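Researcher: Please translate sequence to structure tokens.
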Amino acid sequence: MSSVERSPLSTGKTWSNVPSAPHSAWRRRLSRLASEVAWHGALILACAFVLLPIIIVFFGSFKTIPEFFAAPYGLPKQWDLTNYRQAWADANLQTALVNSVISTSFGVIASTVLAGLAAYGLARFDFAGRNALRLLFIGGLVVPVQLIILPLFVIFRQAGILGGLLPLCLIFAVFGIPLATLVLTGFFALLPRDLEQAARIDGASHLEIFWRIMVPLSRPAIAAVVILNGVWMWNDFFLGFILISDPDAMTLPVAIMAFRGTYLTKWGLIFASVIMSSVPVIIAYLMLSRQFIAGLTAGSVKG
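Model: Translation complete:
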């Protein structure tokens, strides 16, 4: 009998020890299916954990106060816009919306421009102390605004601008620089230097290179910076609550607090105001989502 025709008994093996190809294939399929089910289950739980509070707020925006306390997690009895109309009128949300747009736009634009110029210098020029200066910008990310709010309060009061919208705009512009510098520096460093050298041969200045070459090529990173900084500026409550005392200068998060009282909190109006204040952020994200994802993933792979 040849070696090809030997039975398992002649080699000291039994039929039970011989691996079965169909059985091993089924085991691999079951293992792959189990891992996919576990992964998708974890994703579903994570999505439910995030979406459940949003759904509760959305349902609560249509409820009255007695209805909210009777069934805080149930469906509203009537789907009317009474809370939305009352919140828009009572909290002066139209003025607060304009103030939020002004402060957020100023903070995002100013911080992005200043950080872009700083990031261009850190990424494209070699000079003494460059790494130390970059670490100094990154260090701004670990400084909480609560730690320095008292000296800022005193400075703005001595300058005579406390209580209005200007102090909030200035703080937004300054505190948005560290994150924007960190993102843009890494992106600028990945751009090929051939384009910059070609522009210099054609007689372009550093500012022209930055504006005509770096900025158009860095739109994904700029979109990521705009969204990351814009979201926290739009939703900031602490700075607006401390620095703004003029009712006509209040932003949306501060104006929504008008419905919270000592003895009665109008949850339906608060939820309706929260929904309305989140709509501009959602629209901005949908418009910049593709650029935002591209900016976050830039530099993760080499191509």
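Researcher: Any highlights?
Model: Residues 83-297 form a domain with the MetI-like fold fold (CATH 1.10.3720.10).
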